[in-house]
Structure formats: C-alpha cells, structure tokens
Design goal:
about 300 residues, alpha/beta, Metallo-beta-lactamase, Chain A, seven-stranded mixed beta sheet, six-stranded mixed beta sheet, 9 helices, 13 strands, about 20% strand
C-alpha cells in the first residue's frame, strides 16, 4: 500500500489531520507547577503498586497506520495497536475508518470480541474512528478516555454498553500498566499508556501532542525505572532536522533503549531516529508485530 506523507494526509484527512499540523506550530501547554507536583506525588504512590509483566509475554501488533509493513493490510492516516501479554488485552486507539480498522483486524486474525479494554489516546478522528463498530461486537468493554473528551463519543460508547472511564490524573489501567494522566495541548489533550515490564517501561503514544519528551519524562516520574521502548506517533512531521536531532539526543539522555516511531512522526524524523538508534530502531507500520524478546537482543 502507498505510504502517506503529511501533505497527502492533510489532503485526504481534511480538517482532522489539519488540526495535527496546526498543533505542531504551537508549544504544548504544561500544567501549573503546584498542581503538577500534587498530581505527581499521588501518582508516584500509584506507580509503586504496578506489577511488571514478564517481557517475554509482551506482544504488540500494529493494526492501523499510514506506514505500510505487511502488504496485505490496508494503510491510512491513523493509528491503532493491540497489546497482549498483560493481565488484560488492551486495544490502543481505533484508527480513522471503521472499514479499514475491522478489515485489518480480520486479516491479522484478531478476535475483537475477546478484547475487553479500550484505551483512546485523544479525540481526533484518526484515533477513534473505528470505535463504534468495534463496540457493537461486545457490550461489556471498559473504555479509557481523557477527561476532556466531548460528550458525543462518551455517550455513544455508553449506548453500546461500554463503561467509560474519564482519566484526569494518572490511573491504573491493569495491574501491569497505567495511564500517564491527561496532559494538556493547545489542540487536544492526550494521555499515553505506560507498561511496566521486567526489563523496563514501554511507553505507547497516540500523537504525542503534549510533546514526546514531556510524555517520556512523565513516565519516568510515574514509575522509577528506565524506559525500554517508546512506540507510536511522535508528531514531528513539521519539525526541522536540528530540532529532531535534539529530541533524539534527549531520548538517549533519558535512557530510552528502543524506539518505534510511526504514524505522525514524519519521514524525516523516522530517518533521523533510525540513524541515531541503529539496530535498536524498530521499523513500524500496519501489521508489524513486536514481541518482548525483540527488545532484549541488542
């Protein structure tokens, strides 16, 4: 399938993709220092309760992405992945079009009816588009959303029998993972998934609107462990070569061992991260499966 760059995605994605481009031109907002300290003090106690999963059990499958990986899967601007091996299987985001999302689920041999937990990173169509059709297959799911989500999606999910969990501060999602808590952005607030493994943290982002380095830094504050991998959209498609290299260098300073930048990261940023990380760079796209054992070979 054709790989969409940002310009093509803006043309095909309309105002929703355009919102992401506008966001890149702004500096993300951060919470006030006093409020942030209060939140993080409570969150650190939460982080002590998390139980690491055996890394060898972890399996992450990219269902929906604008980057191709398996040619038999359809690509489109958006993101979704499935996380298995934890004490609950988690669907992270649902892409833009339900037809593509459900088609890729089927082609990957994933039984959507067995997934009980859905984690939506933020309220942009390219991350929530497949939700309603997905929820129709099972009525007892739990759906985690940032508290700032508008009523429409929450009401729709509830009408399908799902239990909607509003996330403001960091919260446990399962015994093995937690939400970063809602982080502010001038376009869309967002939360990311932080998974504790026997070899360090795995951080999964949707679009990283609040800033990819800020998300990693918060993850480190939540759970006092090294970051094994950061996977997902880094939202660097509009960034310059110099700024991207500074971000990659900051990743190394924070001890991030593996990177899997995809979706809205941008081709230039993907190339730079590949140069910087070498064999610890994971090429990602629709159909890529990452096994935990892939993250401890190098």
């Amino acid at each position: 399938m054709e790989k969409l760059n940002r310009r093509e995605a803006l043309q095909k994605g309309g105002r929703l993709a355009l919102g992401g481009a506008v966001c890149a031109a702004w500096t993300p907002l951060t919470l006030g220092c006093a409020n942030e300290e209060k939140i993080m003090a409570a969150a650190r106690e939460l982080g002590k309760k998390i139980q690491p999963v055996d890394l060898e059990k972890l399996k992450i499958t990219i269902i929906y992405d604008n980057n191709p990986y398996k040619q038999e899967l359809r690509t489109d601007w958006g993101f979704s992945c499935l996380i298995e091996g934890l004490d609950a299987t988690i669907l992270f985001d649902t892409g833009r079009y339900d037809t593509i999302f459900m088609s890729n689920l089927t082609r990957l041999g994933i039984d959507g009816g067995k997934i009980g937990t859905v984690f939506l990173s933020h309220e942009h169509q390219d991350h929530v588009g497949g939700l309603q059709t997905f929820l129709e297959a099972r009525r007892d799911r739990k759906v985690y959303v940032p508290q700032s989500f508008t009523g429409g999606i929450k009401k729709m999910a509830a009408s399908q029998g799902a239990a909607v969990v509003d996330v403001a501060d960091p919260v446990m999602v399962t015994r093995n993972c937690l939400s970063s808590g809602e982080m502010r952005s001038v376009v869309k607030n967002e939360h990311s998934l932080v998974i504790d493994t026997s070899h360090g943290l795995v951080v999964i982002t949707g679009c990283a609107h609040p800033g990819i380095c800020d998300i990693v830094e918060r993850s480190l504050k939540l759970v006092n462990k090294k970051v094994l991998m950061v996977l997902g959209g880094f939202h660097l498609g509009m960034n310059s070569d110099g700024s991207i290299r500074k971000i990659a260098a900051r990743f190394q300073e924070m001890g991030v061992r593996y990177v899997g930048p995809t979706h809205c990261t941008g081709q230039l940023a993907q190339r730079i991260f590949q140069q910087v990380y070498g064999d610890r760079y994971l090429s990602c796209g629709a159909g890529r499966i990452i096994h935990g054992e892939d993250l401890c070979r190098i």
